[in-house]
Amino acid sequence: MLPTHKRLVARASRLACTSRRHLATISSDNVHFANVSPSPPQPDETLDVLGVGFGPAGLATAVCMADKGVIRGMSNPQGLRVSFIEKQNSFQWHSGMLLEGTKMQISFLKDLATLRDPTSKFTFLRFLQEHDRLLPFLNLGSFYPYRVEFNEYLQWAAKQFDSVTNYGEQVASVEPLLDHRSGIVDRLRVTSYKNSDKRAPIVRTAKNVVVAVGGQPSYPSFASPYADHSALAHSSQYTHRVPHMLPDSEGRYTIAVVGSGQSAAELFYDLAARYPNAQVKLIFRDTALRPSDDSSFVNEVFDPNAIDDFFNRPLENRREFLRRNAATNYSVVNASLIDEIYAMLYQQRLPTAYGKPKHELLPEHEVFGIDTSSKEPKKLVLNLRTRGSPAKEFAPRTYDAVFDAVFLATGYQRSEHIDVLKPISPYFVKDAHQGLVIGRDYRIATDSNCHANVYVQGCCEETHGLADSLLSVMSVRSEEVLNSIVSRHAQAQALRAPTRSTVSQLNPLENNGSIHQQPLPPVVEAPIAVVEPKPSTANTPAAENPLLSVYPPKPSPGTIIYTRYVPELKETFSLRVANPATDIPLLHEWHNKPRVAKFWNEDGPVSHQAAYLDSVLKSPHNIPLIASFDGIPFAYFEVYWAHIDPIMSKVYKTKTYDRGYHVLVGSDAHRGPHRVKAWMESMNDAIFNSCAKTEQIVGEPRADNDRMIHFIKHFMECDILGDVQLPHKVATIVRIKRTAWEKRPKPTGDSPEAADVSSDVPTLTPISLTPDAQSQHNK
């Protein structure tokens, strides 16, 4: 079990004192040593991203990287160093289930790229065009490609990444690597073996590892001892094994298929057609084959934007949601295939079927054991149990049945990543049930001693919903993972930039005893463009306003100025100065959301957001900030000195070091009271700790922004000073005093009512603004 949060804080503090010592001088109380190896001496060989598994999920990640031009060597000599490892000898997608004539059950638009970027060169339509099949496919009038064709499409896309993909390798472990100076895990060592040579390990190091190993065949407990028997096969190996198991196409075989889902039904139907003289039995526990629910409204559970709603639900609510919607994906069969099976069984009743073998369904049957036949060792005996029914006055019965071949359509288990990641697991944060804590960005939460990142895909159904193991969300998910990786690169580079002295001046991490003193966020290092302030803006503001000389200099764009671990969320909140080189697309997206534009009035083209951010960066009293949870940007803040602010300096009698901030929460996934409470506490903590002379923080939300004012009143020890008429809005002026803030109890999740208005509330006065000032405060 990992240490408690307080112990993590103490350990992080001790590590800070020992970071300059040799690794051997750090005691075992301060750092995990489970299978830790020292960093290799050549960091230039370290990969930025290493993908473990190159099925559709890994391929979608590669496609997203290629679309954004970030892979080194693929049109970008300065891009990320990327590599993938795949245990298959070539790209194959469910090759054992590529049955003739079977179609996809999802639209071709849910391919590797379309939902993320319809203009990508990796779309299914682009594939059809290059293979001269676009018009013929359109003439089919179907959204559902043949399965063999979709596999061909995936292989076509994968071929374009041969230079960065290592086929025929099995990953054995992902281990932590310690930095000698800091004692922090800054990289990961990934060990693999060639399928053809299990003796020679292949070792790679990486800052980010993306694990997408897919599902592994699930064998029921009764079948495990016979998993290698020549008469037993899992559905995943069906087309590879069936010609060897049943070589005579005219043979009078007796065949069993165990399962009640789509794969079981497909195997049952295919075997009946493939072996006309055989008898095929479909064995399952339910009372009937049940159709999958793919109706329009229910199908929305597979939409990428449904992930946010699911992720933010409480655990038990998520589990209930999965139970209620299981009929969309589990133990269900496409309705048209059910009709075909029923028609096939009906035709067995017709006179023309006389003398032919009778295929049959065995509902309400359970296999509880398996054995070899004493008379015919190549055959298997299934021990079957029927379900009893008091209403029909019959008891359960058991009997044995002999089969020439048994096919298990019993699904997949998705836990292989746990074994692979076991060496680094001591650094993973655990939930109340000792399970992994997986963030919205698919990153496994780590403690403060691990700055390397591990992402998982396809095994997050409990946190990210039913679509996690399916193709439906892979294109959008790949972008979310890549954005997280790039964002953490930016954080790491800013932390290591020459402007670190600015960080130490503004970053409250050096203060003792305040609530922000929590584990640092996991960060990694990589190049990123940091825009330095223009020389022309460095001197003129001070000359125009002598008061500027009392304030610390503004930090450079890209600089991280604050981090705080939020125990209630098990996530790290961070602030960095907005960077025109990287943040304009994000700000453009956020400002053009109707709910944001209503209060900010800064919607418009990209050029407008670029000009706006440039004006804020040049402002002598204003700092534009991007806020993130676990490296995922979610909000934009502007922190200003109220005393020299063109509005607030006229609204009330300001003090020299008063500060205020504007708020724009752009990410829909990061809304809700629990999030607001976390970022409000963090922002106030950051501001009060950045300058010891700041006695109060002020704000002026629009008076009709009831939701925000409600949160301020219930989460902060604040004074409501009243409403004031500004030229562009009626604002409610709020104030948080340092004295009240420092007396607040440690956050517990309660919602205290706002304090009464102080006796020294000043008179608020309507003011007129210049156009520039009005633009700055049009929030």
Count of separate structural domains: 3
At the fourth level of CATH, the homologous superfamily of the largest domain is FAD/NAD(P)-binding domain
Strand content: 15-25%
Number of helices: 23
Q: What characteristic shape results from the CA principal axes?
A: elongated
Computed structural class = alpha/beta
Uncertain segments:
1-44, 498-543, 747-779
Number of strands: 26
Rg, alpha carbons:
31 Å
From the coordinates shown, what is the CATH architecture of the largest domain?
3-Layer(bba) Sandwich
Distance between the ends: 46 Å
Main beta-sheet strand count, sense and barrel state: 8 strands, mixed
Keywords: FAD, Flavoprotein, NADP, Oxidoreductase
Family: Belongs to the lysine N(6)-hydroxylase/L-ornithine N(5)-oxygenase family.
Region (Disordered): 742-779
Organism: Powellomyces hirtus
Would you kindly provide a written description of the structure presented here, covering whatever features stand out?
This protein is an alpha/beta fold. The chain has three domains: 5-215 and 414-487, FAD/NAD(P)-binding domain (3-Layer(bba) Sandwich); 217-292 and 329-411, FAD/NAD(P)-binding domain; 496-776, Gcn5-related N-acetyltransferase (GNAT) (Aminopeptidase, 3-Layer(aba) Sandwich), CATH 3.40.630.30. It contains 23 helices and 26 strands. Strands 1, 2, 3, 4, 5, 6, 7 and 18 form an eight-stranded mixed β-sheet that branches. It has an eight-stranded mixed β-sheet with strand order 19-20-21-22-23-24-26-25, sandwiched between helices. Strands 9-16-10-11-12 form a five-stranded parallel β-sheet, with helices on one face. A hairpin with a 7-residue loop joins strand 13 (365-372) and strand 14. The chain is elongated, with a radius of gyration of 31 Å. The protein starts with a helix and ends with a helix. The model is unreliable at 1-44, 498-543 and 747-779 (pLDDT under 50).
